[in-house]
Amino acid sequence: MRIAIVSDIHGNLPALEAVLDDLEDEKPDEVWCGGDIGWGGGWATECIARVRKEGWTAIKGNTDVWITGDPQTLDSEAARSNHRAIAAAHAIGEADAEWLINLPLGHSGPGSILLVHGTPSSPFEAPQPDAPAAAFTVYEDQAGIVVYGHVHRAFVRRLADGTLVANSGSVGAPKDGVDACYLVVDRGGPDLVLRHRRVPYDRAAAIDKAHSLEGPLRDVFLENLGAG
């Protein structure tokens, strides 16, 4: 059984298209999407449409809530107002907003694998790779393998109770390199292999697109690309 886990696309269509091409070579049995599909890039609508067209199993990320115009978890009115402006700039349609807001918080699959965006209880928070062991106890007793996104840094870590925790990395806004990144989980009987795929893409085209935007979305996209 081969599962590809694609997460944190963040409206970066060239990166998503490169990953789609790579998936043709990997030939996974299933593709799961870990959320944060459109927010923060120049092709939010196109990325959402492509994920929906592919029919991937998808879960909800924190920015999938924000892009609908709901600035959850933000306390100050200034931050909430700024996020509403960014959400409006993406201009996603009502059908896409409804689809995003109704996505589940997690998905479990064969072989005791659980996918969440942040933690099992919230898509708005997750530990960094170098966080202390106590920060990862939220993933214990959930599944044999727990995969999450959110922090945009690919890693694998074994917890004290034996749970294997992995971050999928980010397709559209990686913080540990410039190539698009996703995770492949191969499981056949007792054998288990987790592989992070690093996929080059036309980053220059994404940067050009970001510079063509106006307002706060331009700055968010450039920051996501590491070009701010």
Structure characteristics:
single chain; globular; 228 residues; alpha/beta; 7 helices; five-stranded mixed sheet; Purple Acid Phosphatase, chain A, domain 2; 10 strands; 31% helix
Characterization of the model:
By secondary structure, the chain is an alpha/beta fold. It has a single domain (2-224), classed as Purple Acid Phosphatase, chain A, domain 2 (4-Layer Sandwich). 31% of the residues lie in helices and 21% in strands. It is built from 7 helices and 10 strands. The chain has helices at 13-26, 44-54, 62-66, 77-90, 94-101, 203-212, 216-224; strands spanning 2-6, 30-33, 57-58, 106-109, 113-116, 145-148, 155-158, 164-167, 180-188, 191-199. Strands 3-2-1-9-10 form a 5-stranded mixed sheet. A 5-stranded mixed sheet has the order 4-5-6-8-7, with no helix packed on it. β9 (180-188) and β10 (191-199) form a beta hairpin. α6 runs antiparallel to α7 (216-224). The longest helix is centred in the N-terminal third of the chain and has 14 residues, at 13-26. The termini are far apart. 43% of the residues are buried. The model has no long low-confidence stretch (mean pLDDT 95).
Average pLDDT number: 95
Strand arrangement, major sheet: 3-2-1-9-10
At the first level of CATH, what is the class? Alpha Beta
- The named CATH superfamily: Metallo-dependent phosphatases
pLDDT under 50 segments (min length 5)? Answer: none
What value does the Rg take, in angstroms?
Answer: 17 Å
Helix percentage: 25-40%
What is the CATH T-level topology? Purple Acid Phosphatase, chain A, domain 2
- Overall, the morphology is globular
* Count of DSSP strands: 10
The structural domain count equals 1
Q: Give the strand content.
A: 15-25%
SS-based structural class?
alpha/beta
